[in-house]
Amino acid sequence: MKKHFDILVAGEINPDLILRGDVAPEFGQVEKLVDSASLSIGSSSAIFACGAARLGLKVAIIGVCGDDLFGQFMLDAMKARTVDVSNVIRVPEGQTGLSVILNRGNDRAILTHSGLIDALRASDISDPLLRQTRHLHVASYYLQTNLQPGLPDLFNRAHALSLTTSLDTNWDPSEKWKGIMEILPLTEVFLPNAAEAMAITGLDDIDLAAEELARYTSVAAVKLGAEGALSMQGKLKSRTSTIPVNFVDTVGAGDSFNAGFLYGYLNGWEMDKSLRLAAVCGALSTRAAGGVAAQPTLEEALHYVS
After folding, report:
1. How far is the C-alpha of 297 from the C-alpha of 300, rounded, in Å?
2. Is 208 helix (H, G, I), strand (E, B) or coil?
3. Contact 195, 164 (CB under 8 A)
4. Which of 207, 202, 205, 164 is nearest to 180 (CA)?
C-alpha cells in the first residue's frame, strides 16, 4: 500500500517567545531591556516536523493545542512549512503551551507554561492514521505524561502495521528516567544527546553509553554538540564532526539533527552518511534565532555531505 506520509509525529505543540540580550531577569520589579523578541515555532515535535518537511519528507503531526491565539499561530506556521496539521486536536477552552526563552550568548534560560503540552494520549492515534504513514516519531517523552503509559502499545500497533519508530526523550525534569528501558526495545532509532545518554545508562563515558543503548534499540544516534555526533548499530560505530557556521542560536538544533538522521534512515542510506547529514542539519539550523528559521533544504545540506 502506498503511504501518504513518510513520517507521523506524535507530540507537543507550543510556540517559543524568544528574547535575546545580555541581561538576566531580576525580581523586585526590575525592568531590563532586551535586544530583540520574536514568536517562533516551538516544541521539539513541531520543530522536528518542520525540519523533516524542509528536507522533502511528507510529514504529518498529531498533538493537542487550544483554540486560541498561540494554537492558531502554530497551525498556520506549520502549514506554511508543508506539515500536515489536519489531525491536530483543538480544545475550545484549552490553553496552548508557551515557552519564554532568554538567549544570552551561548546559553539560555527557559520558562514554560505547559498548557496542553501533555494532553496527547496514545488512544488519540488511530490505526487508520498509522496506516497512512511509514514511520512514527515521538519527542519530548518526559513532557508528554499522558502519552507515556500507552506508548509501548502504540509502538506495537505501529510495528504491526509495518511502521518503524523513533524516539527522542529530551531531558527528564525529574532526572529519574523512568519508563525508558521499557520502550527502547520497541524503538528502531533512539536519538538522545550525550547528557541524556549518560544519564539514562548511568555511565560517564559517552562511547560506553552509546554501546549500552545499542543493546536495547536497533540504532542509537547521539548528539555531541560541538563535537559532532556518534551512532551505534549493533557493534558498528560511526562518528562525524560538525561544520563551522555563523552561530546565532541552538534552539531546535537537536530536532534538526533528528530530521537529518531520519531522512537518511528512511531512504536506506548507510549509517555514516545518515549521521553526517544529521550533524550538518543540526549545525546549519543554528544560524538564526529560533528552531526553524535556518533549517536547511536537502540540497543545501548535501553540500557538506560526501
Report:
1. 5
2. helix
3. no
4. 202
Domains and CATH numbers, the chain: 5-26+36-295 (3.40.1190.20)
Q: How many beta carbons lie within 10 A of that of residue 267, not counting itself?
A: 14
Cell of residue 140, nine digits: 519530548
Kindly provide the b/e burial profile for residues 229-258, where b requires at least 16 CB atoms within 10 angstroms of the residue's own CB. bbbbbeeeebbbebbeeeebbbbbbbbbbb
C-alpha cell recorded at residue 46: 513541531
In the numeric block, which cell numbers belong to residue 68? 486560541
Whether the per-residue pLDDT at 1 is higher than 80: the answer is no
Residue bearing cell 525534569: 173
SS3 274: helix
- One-letter amino acid identity for 87? N
How does DSSP classify residue 193? B
pTM: 0.95
292 phi and psi angles, rounded to 5 deg: -120, -20
* Helix/strand/coil percent split, the chain, to 5: 35, 25, 40
Residue pLDDT, tens place only, 156-178:
999 999 999 999 999 999 999 99
